[in-house]
Predict the structure of DNA mismatch repair protein MutL.
Amino acid sequence: DHLVNQIAAGEVVERPASALKEMLENSLDAGATRIAVDLAQGGIKLIRVSDNGSGIAAEDLPLALDRHATSKIASLDDLECVVTLGFRGEGLASIASVSRLTLTSRPVGSEHGHQIVAIDGTLHPVEPAPHAQGTTVEVVDLYFNTPARRKFLKSEATEYAHCATTFERIALAHPQVEFILRHNGKVVWRLPAQALADRVAALLGRDFADNALAVETSAGTLVLTGFAGHPTASRGNRDTQYFYVNGRFVRDKTAQHALRQAYRDVLHHERHPAYALFLTMDPAQVDVNVHPTKIEVRFRESQAIHQFLFHSVHKTLAGTQA
Ligand code: ADP
Ligand code: MG
């Protein structure tokens, strides 16, 4: 139902950056190793994401735009152990309800591509269209049909900044994937497939990377990897705090507190630590379903997580103080 989709869209697609996030996550879920993003006018005019992932069969194209159609979970029980980034099946349907969306794809093993266009939530018939293996989703004129929402969008520069942040957060967590970001035709990022350390250096800067300490700890099923800024480096601010749970960027109070405390304990004074840390854990022990934009998580055992993060980073930092 169109209205339901538009209302849901308000939740899922707050702004161009949220649409971009859904689209990038779909490309990653499809196993893409190369993803190109084109934005125009801060993403308000155009968001195009092209990937070389597994693609979508012609007959499944309408399904991909159907609300609650997801190819990623078969039952509610599966929600317990979600490993893919998307699973609600509402991303594309929501975006399609508030934009002019074109989905073009050619699945592995298929000779030709196909395309479906959705305008104002109405699906047009599937047509043949040339495409390399993979998928391109093109979102034009976000919120053209919901002026009240469109008014809430900020300037192109601000919306672009949000898109760039979203792109960078995702690119940091997938160094093995090649990414390109263009805005208004200009290349902003060209990131080859590379080692994490090189991706960190590209995105967070040489300053951070050259002094950062590698973190690699585990306890039971908890594993923490990544880089913690050198305790005496001054570069840290809220923007250089990258924390991921099972591959998703999250802002989490428990994690922020544990990490700040580890730094304070070593340095004996307050400072914004800089870090790019990746926590992997049993998906059943973390609820990623707390908000449609999925930036927050809820840990079943938050005390244990706090302790693990604190000790992991503390140990790493303390090693430099001797
Ligand atoms: P979800 O990701 O939660 O399953 P979406 O609405 O984001 O829901 O996508 C719906 C479906 O469309 C996905 O389950 C997937 O089958 C298909 N799809 C979307 N984008 C891509 C892509 N880039 N490559 C392959 N399949 C895709
Ligand atoms: Mg999705």
The two ends are 64 Å apart (CA to CA). The pocket of magnesium ion (ligand 2) is lined by residues 22, 25-26, 86, 91 (CB under 6 Å). The mean pLDDT is 88.
